[in-house]
Specification:
Layout lengths: L1 H10 L21 E2 L4 H17 L2 E6 L5 E6 L3 H7 L2 E8 L2 E8 L7 E5 L8 H12 L3 E5 L16 H6 L3 H21 L6 E6 H12 L6 E7 L16 E6 L7 H11 L4 E5 L13 H22 L1
Parallel strand pairs: 6-7, 6-8, 8-9, 9-10, 10-11
Antiparallel strand pairs: 1-4, 2-3, 4-5, 5-7
Helix pairs in contact: 2-4
Length: 312
Amino acid sequence: MAASLACLSSSAKFGAPWSPFNRHGIHNLPPPQLVPLASSMEIYITRSFLRRRRCLKNISALETSDGAVNVEVDEDDDDEEEACELVNGTEVSVDGVEGYLLTAVKNNNGTGLLLLSDVFGFQDSATRDFAYRVACNGYNVLVPDLFRGDPWSKNRPKSEYEEWRRKQDPDRIRKDTTSFTKWMVEEFAAAGISKKLGVMGFCFGGGRVVDVLATDENDYFSTGVSFYGTRIDSAVAGDVKVPVLFVSGDRDPLCEVKGLYEIKEKIGERSKVVMYEGRGHGFVHRPETAEDDRDAEEAFALMRNWLHHHLI
């Protein structure tokens, strides 16, 4: 977050620009650079944006007083496209665990988001695509390697999945996410920025959103967003003190509707469950059909408004 927070510090008149990363020997952050994506990943992101823009332009999703969601389509998306050209990215290492950071340059709002990936890991193109889009909306998005170099791969036999899953120690993951959270907090504090953070995740990471918020003893986070979280520990849901947005599809066998509503009730009335009819697992960050695209865009707009309401 070196360059972006330095610019924020200056533009917000907190003082002269500074480089926060010289202070931490254990945080190995190379100089910031343009998003270091492989050419294949750049092509994937470009095609993803173009494919969605062909289907629809800029969608806005507004929640009404009765809990319904009104969707509007704006044909003029030039501002968003221009802003998306100004996103910096860099690899990071926190206490020996890798991750990557995407920061908005032109429209940085000074707010940080911890994004927890699905089982395919932090380097997966779909995860980076989504993180890039979120950064385009002004955020500093930090994505840790939850699996320490051993993500699940589609090339591995499905019969090995449960064994692989058992190796993903919840305590270790909790420790790593805590380290990344404190890292962000320290850099924001050094920049003179006091805004709280948000946490979001998909699938495996969506389930861990509840874990992170339930153990947030220092109240670092103001909100969370869980996209079709798997194996959510409902026993700790009552310890979550901030509102959470849960998004899923009613045809998702890995994230049952009934379970989400039960977790939502334990957290409190400020949280919300949004269920998309006919959608299966992963439709927001891995859309496969035109219908998936449409609902993915609406869910993204809903998430964007939710984050703005609770963080900005």
